[in-house]
Amino acid sequence: MATHLSDSRPVTGDLTIFDWATGPYPARVRIALAELNLQSRVRFVSVNLWKGEHKKPDFLARNYSGTLPVLETPDGTFIGECTAITEYLDALDGSPVLTGATPRDKGVIHMMSKRAELEVLDAVSVYFHHATPGLGPDVELYQNAEWGFRQRDKALRGMHYFDAVLSKQSFVAGESFSMADITLIGGMIFADLVKLAVPAECKALSLWYHRMQERPSVQNRVSMSEPSVVA
Ligand code: GTS
To answer: Consecutive 10-residue runs of the chain (231 residues): their mean pLDDT?
Structure first.
């Protein structure tokens, strides 16, 4: 169930997530929630990106970075950054399955997730915000198209990197589904949104993404918070 930022209805879950249902970064946390079967514990609050609500003072008080999503824990702590939120959720029952159970797995998953962020997801995001109209003139106060196109090219190189990785293993960080897959899925969702096609030669990447889209957590990520109430 999603409510609006200004809605003061009572909390139905002990965890609150401020996000935007169709956003690629929010998708990462929504997928993690479903993989961990935690969605019934969450109340979603919709923050309208297109109206720039994430840049307003009341939201900035929750997340200095002015980005979505943000998690509010039962003790009122606000956690921003998808990786941090996923680590929190994964640690809740003491047996992490998305972020690694051993020191080695934790290290590899974090490394590959960071690479998926730097090389694909964040690069596509910069392309969107700088080399396309992005969220519109009221929200995009500074744009640098050249930087945006460089980041688009970086994202395409990143896709080739992950294609090579996925031609040798089933998942981004090895032989199990992990947070690193979720991060790259976020990148691919963003690439789809901005119509940045996966290079035809990246067959292993395309096959992996096709498999990922069959997961219920990926399929149901947007409807997870419906019916959505927005102003
Ligand atoms: N590093 C942050 C994270 O991992 O949480 C980035 C979050 C982020 O960029 N979120 C997007 C955002 O707030 C949400 S979405 O575009 O995927 O819907 N963008 C708005 C902006 O103005 O940057």
So the answer is: 49 83 98 96 95 95 96 96 98 96 98 98 98 95 97 98 98 98 98 98 98 98 74 33
Q: Compute, in angstroms, the gap from residue 30 CA to the centroid of ligand 1.
A: 14
Ligand 1 binding pocket includes 54 (Cβ within 6 Å): yes
What are the contacts of 84-92 at 24+ separation with CB within 8 A?
A: 85/17, 85/29, 85/32, 86/28, 86/29, 86/32, 86/179, 86/182, 87/179, 89/29, 89/32, 89/33, 89/36, 89/38, 90/32, 90/36, 90/179, 92/36, 92/38
CATH superfamily of 2-96+218-224: Glutaredoxin (3.40.30.10)
**How far away, in angstroms, is 82 Cα from ligand 1 center?**
9
Looking at domain 103-215, does it have CATH number 1.20.1050.10? yes
